[in-house]
Write a structure and sequence with these properties.
Layout lengths: L13 E8 L2 E7 L9 H8 L9 E6 L6 E7 L4 E2 L3 H15 L3 E6 L2 E7 L5 E4 L28 E4 L3 E6 L8 H9 L9 E9 L2 E8 L3 E3 L3 H13 L6 E6 L2 E8 L2 E6 L2 E8 L1 H6 L1
Parallel strand pairs: 2-3, 4-6, 10-11, 12-14
Antiparallel strand pairs: 1-2, 1-17, 3-4, 4-5, 6-7, 7-8, 8-16, 9-10, 11-12, 12-13, 14-15, 15-16
């Protein structure tokens, strides 16, 4: 993968990259060496797939004193995201190529994360320990997070973002367009929630589909994949090392003593520059 081109940048000309991990697509802006440039308005304008570039999430790379780099995440509706596993893997791939390394650390709202390159080229990131208490997810009131008081008996898991995981007979049969936003905005979730639907294909092999808060239907979700495996294991459906088939590709999750490791492919699609006219119209 080539490093991003870095043309001259001014407040009205911003370079970016487009990357994806298992079809979960991102705009990435490298703001190292300068002040952060992303705002809610910029994220929302860029997230428009007709008038902007389109993305599931936007990641902004920043300098860090505590790690190799820091990351901020934005959803396509302009809201902030606390974690984004596939974007973290994509940025890690880019930065490992730039630094000539096979491991690095990243500071996010989730905390300091560790990423490594596998021998087959896939990127793994430790997404940290799952948040299993109702106040950590967070939920609006105390309840059993493994069995939420909602139709369908879902589980709640925090992975830096809140997740509501349903285990169903056939994830393909779920109408994400109607069911997803209903759960996302349910009063049980004061910060809204991501919504996952999964069924067991084989031992330690899940099929998962996802509705992301602030983004809608996405082809994959890294933190959602982690949350789904955590919930599946706690429900006794799988072990701790699970293959997950998302709409956009295959991801692997390994819940170890040091955290939940997410592994999968990454792709660097293109580099570009936002025009002065686009920036002026925001």
């Amino acid at each position: 993968m080539e490093n991003a081109a870095t043309p001259p940048q001014t407040p009205t000309a911003i370079a970016f990259m487009k990357m994806h991990g298992a079809g979960n697509d991102f705009v990435i802006i490298d703001s190292r060496g300068r002040d952060a440039v992303v705002t809610a308005k910029l994220a929302q304008a860029l997230g428009d797939r007709h008038r902007g570039t389109g993305f599931d999430q936007l990641a902004e790379i920043r300098d860090s004193q505590a790690a190799d780099l820091a990351l901020d995440f934005w959803n396509s509706d302009g809201s902030r995201a606390g974690a984004c596993g596939n974007a973290t893997r994509c940025v890690s791939d880019y930065m490992m190529n730039e630094l000539g390394r096979d491991a690095l650390t990243l500071t996010t709202e989730r905390g300091t994360l560790h990423a490594i390159r596998q021998q087959d080229g896939r990127i793994s990131v430790n997404m940290g320990h799952p948040q299993l208490d109702w106040s950590e997810v967070p939920l609006s009131h105390a309840t059993d997070t493994l069995h939420l008081p909602l139709p369908g008996d879902p589980a709640a898991v925090g992975m830096g973002n809140p997740h509501c995981v349903f285990f169903v007979a056939d994830a393909e049969a779920i109408n994400l367009t109607t069911d997803g936003p209903t759960i996302e905005h349910h009063s049980l979730f004061p910060e809204r929630t991501n919504v996952e639907y999964a069924h067991l294909i084989a031992p330690n092999h899940l099929r998962m589909r996802v509705w992301e808060r602030g983004a809608g239907i996405t082809l994959a979700c890294g933190s959602g994949t982690c949350a789904t495996v955590v919930a599946a294991h706690l429900r006794g459906l799988t072990g701790r090392s699970v293959t997950v088939e998302a709409d956009g590709g295959t991801l692997n999750v390994d819940w170890r003593d040091d955290g939940v490791w997410l592994t999968g492919p990454t792709a660097h699609i293109f580099n570009g520059t936002l025009t002065a006219a686009f920036m002026a119209a925001i």
